[in-house]
Amino acid sequence: MVSKPDKNSPKAVDGGEKNKKRKPSHSGSGGFKNSKQQRSGNSGGGGGGGGGVPPPKPVGDLDSVLADIKTLWNRLRQKQNTKAQTREIMDELMVAITGRVRQIALKHDAARVVQAAVQFGSVADRRAIVSELAAGGGGDAKAIGKDRGKKSAGVGGSGGMAELCTVQYAHFVVLKILKYCCGPAPTGKDAGKDVPGRPCGDETVRRSIVRHCLRGNVLRLSTHANGSGVVELALETLPKADAEGLRRELFGREFTPLFSDGGAFGTADGAAAVVSSSRNMFADILDGCADDPKKTEKLLSHVTALLNKFVDRGLLALHFVQRLLFEYFDGLEQAGADATGKLRSEIASAIADRVPHAISSRAGAAAACAAFGFASAKDRKKMMKSLKGYVGSTLEHRDAYIVPARMATACDDTVSSSKYLIDELVKGPPPAQGAAAPKDHPLLAVSTHPTAHRMLLAIMSRPDTLGRLFGPYERTLLAPTFLPGADGADPVPTSKKDPEVRRAELLKGMKTATIALCGRHARRLMEDRAGAAVLREACGAFPEETARDVAAATAVGDGDVFEHPTGHLLWKQVLSAEADDGGDKDEDGGAPAAAALHDMYGGKLLQTVGASNRGAFVLCELSKAGGGVGEKVWAELGKGKGLKELQARAKKGTNTKGYEALLALMKKKR
Q1: Mean pLDDT across 605-632
Q2: 434 Rama class: left (phi>0) / alpha (psi -120 to 50) / beta
Q3: Cα–Cα dist 232/310, whole Å
Q4: How would you write 209-224 as a 3-class SS string?
Q5: Nearest one of 544, 543, 600 to 574, comparing CA atoms
Q6: 261 pLDDT band (50/70/90 cuts)?
Q7: How far is CA 459 from CA 43, 351, 465, 584, 625, in A?
Q8: End-to-end CA distance of the chain, in Å?
Q9: Whole-structure pTM value
Q10: DSSP 3-state assignment of 333?
Q11: 187: pLDDT confidence band, cut at 50, 70 and 90?
């Protein structure tokens, strides 16, 4: 039975794992052999050490050095150590662990010592540690885990460095090596310097890790609970050529030659070859086996099984998994290999209740949007339900915000989308017992957030205005999903409900909250870039209910809204859209926003709205309003000395484009 660690010893390995009781999976005792020795060693931690470096103990006597190296580790990690003290402790530590690095790394209570040696050691120390780990075996993928229960003699072991990647505590050593040795070389003041405690970007270590640990093992490691974390960090840290070459292994050796460049990888010593970067590796391979239906079927079967394995083992949060998921949906679309959408529908069903884990990257968010388009009605409901309680935090994520917007605008079941997505936003958290009602409306934080407000825009905007509000990337993800029609017929959308009907149903559930938002916070919204966009669409969705509130908010408060960078644009765009949509309407219902603004400033338009250069642009749009408002504006501008006042303003200053535009309209009207 594993002996219980002393209460003074550290509880966790550097990396965050918990100290649980478990059976020892490697050689030697799982706990401390001499607790008194450990306590006395810890009590003296923090100093720089004295005397010379003690002679090394015999290599085979591992247990006798565990307490000593833990004491050194406790001293090494002290933040107040000077460079000289750190170097002195490292010299002692390297003497103690040399010849035993692999055995120590496999110990649950000593792996942290090797991690510290990698972190605080010099380039020479790091090379020595990696060299010793690499000498433990060739890294053959078939040997991973075979000798996990056997006692290692010396530094050997059939699994090599690849085995370390699968061990709960030892894999943190590999992560530390990747972090401190395999990234880009330092620049700036640390360029070319050997600075302990900082990444060095050493080419020798990088080649050794690629050759002895990763190459040939990526596919097996990627589905392992511990090994997948190593693959994730390796793909993020290693140079692009290495990362792209390793990622190809996910598709298996059989399909590597089908790449457009013939599957080049690297040299035998671990040096990177020039690997062409493909936006979609899966599509590249599909194109390579397009003439061989059997090989295509085998490839689809392999990738589908791999994705299902990732899902079953809870690995969707890893970015390389999310990228493969995106490539799967995008590659099948490009190649037309899944005409009925069956394969994509099955994967969508597999990830339906795990969406929050799969959207932490740009590729993952795009894959989730594509999956929602091919999901069945039941799976769509599962996907929305999985976000319940996390809609707000999802909308604030730089990449994931597009997923709830996609769900709300593509789901035919508007009752479910309102329940799981919108209600959390419009109702907000319930107030604490005995506390006063919150001063701000729950939608205000969403409306003024740089990414969260995009969902409100997607719901309130009309389908024909998406191009004005969203970029090409967002429009691609929000676009309807189609399947080929039978016998050459037109493509069939996977969402059956008319977009205008869906929008009307969603707006019905948001109407009360949106009107209240505009009534309470119109001024704050119009002075915020994101909020102004939401307010503009709210004025278009609920013109009669919001027009007077927005006009009243314009007239109160400090500062001139018509000279504000976003405030004047709000009025200009609202009036322009209203003129385009309501020009043929009668006087009673043509232009509620224009009528409200004229009622507020009529009789003094030039002195208020047209007093600034930006306000002159607003006055130009107001003069084009329907419903009889435009005629009233021109009647006022044609009186008195309006033309002379504008001419005088246009001659002053440098920013006079607004005055000039208004003057041109007045001259044309006359």
Answers
A1: 90
A2: left
A3: 13
A4: HHHHHHCCCHHHHHCC
A5: 543
A6: low
A7: 63, 25, 11, 26, 26
A8: 100
A9: 0.82
A10: helix
A11: confident
